Amino acid sequence: MKNYLIPNGYWLAIILLCAFAKPMGKRKLMADKTASTVTYAAKHPMHNWEGVSRDVNCAMIYNDDTRQPESIAVSIKVASFDSDNNNRDSHAIEVLDGLTYPNVTFSCSDIKANESGTLTAKGNLTFHGITKPVTVQVTRKESAGKMTMSGEFPVMLSDYKIERPSLMGMKTEDGIMLRFNVVFAL
């Protein structure tokens, strides 16, 4: 039987490679629900208002090698939005057919980093049972082991066959603005 010897320099190289190798590959990250929000802003001739959901279910596939998100999926219950007016929130669930279509979802697997440091996410928004392609500009910030992704994009209610609510014979504007602020622990 032959005895194979590995020189000490090779052992040192193997130990150093193992000790300092960073984790590679992809990970599934879940958003921190205590720090993440999605807000809609609506306008009526008599007043403007916002509704906020703090019940944001969001998962991301994060590539440790490129340090970039590769895909993301978001789901928010229509009933989770709070506009500080229970009557308005109840009416919103009715107008949005919240019992038939309880969730608003966004899914995306086309995320590109821009030279400015922002991300362009092309995906699908499903709202009121209708799915439409949307492109979202995302600001990404990293600090203290956390990544925050934020941005906004307009949604036209008529594109999703939603009848605009009315108050005193006047309808809300067709366009609402969706804003998001989603936080992940890296």
Question: What features would you describe in this structure?
Answer:
This protein is mostly beta strands. 12% of the residues lie in helices and 53% in strands. The chain is elongated and about 60 Å long. The model has no long low-confidence stretch (mean pLDDT 90).
Care to give the gist of this entry?
The chain has helices at 8-20, 86-95; strands spanning 26-30, 37-44, 47-53, 56-63, 68-77, 103-113, 119-127, 130-143, 146-156, 166-167, 170-171, 175-185. The protein is mostly beta strands.
Question: Which helices and strands occur, and which strands form pairs?
Answer:
Blueprint (H helix, E strand, L loop, with lengths): L7 H13 L5 E5 L6 E8 L2 E7 L2 E8 L4 E10 L8 H10 L7 E11 L5 E9 L2 E14 L2 E11 L9 E2 L2 E2 L3 E11 L1
Antiparallel strand pairs: 1-4, 2-3, 2-12, 4-5, 5-6, 6-7, 7-8, 8-9, 9-12, 10-11
Give the number of helices: 2
What is the end-to-end distance?
A: 50 Å
Can you write the helix and strand succession as a string? HEEEEEHEEEEEEE
Q: How does the helix and strand content classify structurally?
A: mainly beta
Count of distinct strands: 12
Strand content: over 45%
**Roughly how many Å is the radius of gyration?**
23 Å
Question: Which spans have pLDDT < 50 for at least 5 consecutive residues?
Answer: none
